Amino acid sequence: MAKPKLVLYVDVVSPFAYLAFHICYTSPVFKGCDVTYVPVFLGGIMKATGNRPPLQIKNKGEWIGKERLRWAKSFNIPMAEGIPPGFPANTIKVQRALTLVGILHPQRLAETLAAVFHASFAEQKEVHTPESLTPIFEKIFGEEGTKEILTKSTSDEVKQRLTAKTNEALAEGSFGLPWYVATNAEGEKECYWGFDHIAQVTDHLGLERPGSDSVSGTGWRAML
Q: Where is the active site (predicted)?
């Protein structure tokens, strides 16, 4: 029987993509699943689908600010009460850099995403410019490796790759992030949107969730 597979499309501008990534990356629940993380450009998805940023919708901006903190507390995920500088920033440059990491160092993409997400939402640091990314990347790739990534991330190849992956997410039905494409052991595929549907993702994949007495158990119970 094939191992269940999960493709998670993310953009580091989204606090809910951060929550979904953190659970998929750190929780034992997903250890029995092959997870692929795909950087995409949320701005492109929003434009293509005619969607509006939450902060432009009356009352929704305030609501998501509360909601992200509730879920972070329930799942014990590091999340600052305030928002990152310039939020919501244009993340095209950081998403291109992450796309190149996936090309040059695919085995380190998850680690890099974790570092960028944490800097943004747990430490309230700017992450959307090459200057702000440099110290984060240098801890992983060193000075020369970071220079290579940030320089080559402006190439046509990388731009086209990010566009292609964004279009891939759109073709899978995405209108926002996080977007999951989950294929269970029987080969049955389903797509899901939003952090609050991650329990449905685990159900489809046949993954066992923690009991209510575990550190993250209260979070899973809140989704019932």
A: 14
In a domain, 14, yes or no: no
CATH assignment at residue 206:
3.40.30.10
pLDDT at 2: 87
Give dist(CA 116, CA 5) in Å, integer.
24
Separation between Cα atoms, residue 130 and residue 15, nearest integer Å: 20
In this prediction, the residues of the chain whose per-residue pLDDT falls under 50 are 212-213
Count of structural domains, the chain: 1
Distance from first CA to last CA of the chain, Å, rounded? 28
Q: Is 81 exposed, middle or buried (0-12, 13-18, 19+ CB in 10 A)?
A: exposed
Phi, psi of 133 (to 5 degrees): -75, -30
- Reported pTM: 0.94
DSSP 204: H
Q: Does 14 qualify as catalytic in the annotation?
A: yes
Q: Spot the catalytic one: 14, 132, 153, 216.
A: 14
Tell me the pairing of strands 34-39 and 5-10: parallel
In the numeric block, the tokens 């992030």 are attached to: 177
